[in-house]
Write a structure and sequence with these properties.
384 residues; alpha+beta; Phosphatidylinositol 3-kinase Catalytic Subunit, Chain A, Domain 5
Length: 384
Amino acid sequence: MIEISHHDKFIATLQAENKKYILEYKDFDLSNSISLSLPNTQKFYISEFDFIPYFESFLPEGYLFEVFKNYLTKEYGYVDDYLLFSILAPNIEGRIKYGKSDDIEIKFELDYILENDTDDIFNYLLNIFLRKNAVSGIQPKTVAILKDKEKLNIKNYIIKTWGDEFPYLAENEFISLKTVEFAGIKIPNIYLSKNKKFLIVERFDSKNLGFEEVLSLMGKVRAFKYNGSYEQVAKTIYQYLSDPKEMEEFFKLIVMNYLLKNGDAHLKNFGLLFSDDLSEIHLSPAYDVVTTTAYIFKDKPALTLFGKKKWYYEELIEFGRKYCFLDNAKDLYDECIEAKNKGIKLLEEYINNNPHFEIIGKKMLDSWQNKEITDDIIRTWRKN
């Protein structure tokens, strides 16, 4: 059984029993809710077979899951969602606590990691902060708590790196997110390390600010993250937002994902931030934006729009008007086109100054400039 508290007040328990996962609140107080999808308005939340979606959103995927699978099967002889969550839960940093966290000495400053982006440093951080890695996503990454030399405080970061399958992914994501920012969309504080091996992302949830993915808001588990539509995402976000005007920013984020050819904008890659007492709910900063067609030549959008998974352009204006309720969708779309053009200039300049990035960078440029990905282009990419 996992005991759950909010500001040191015991509020609920989570347990697994006969292939059922049971969350039991101990009183009714909306301000002591665990998340938006689990408001403290009923005594029990029960999920059969599948883990409760909100808690499942903390479970690692891909690279990190393999690390934990090897560790847990050696230690316990098996691995399942409840065991994995019970290992990670005490060290989840946020407004909700799940038991007593580990004491970890904070040895490194952010500047040191930026200057020393080696595999040894990454593996060291992964080992030190392993039980804090309650983060999803396929690519190699680790949570790290680092000192900020200038501001003299300690912050939580996610350090992302890459392997041979997706070369220079840190640079791809850094430039893509900066281009998204050109459109007036909030992004986290991000840093590219000296040798371009790490993308360091400052976490935007905190002890007084909760975060929840659209996937769990829709009551779905990660196996269904590619199963849905952008219309459904819009509907889900709209019904929670404190300020409907934020649908403008959401619409621009959808447009930028299309313009930059991010084929991995699935249900886990949109989220909401909420105040400690759930009274204020806002769109989270954009995250995990990558030009996937630089690696998967004929990649498609992660979710459907107008019933299809295809790259739309001006047709997106109709999505903005009809599903985001925006009369000014055309103006917002034009802002995104202007942002993409600024991003193209940024990308061209970056390629000129970083020759190692030329192959991936040119693939990104082809994608952003809407060049038809023909067999001839694919053969040229493969040759390079």
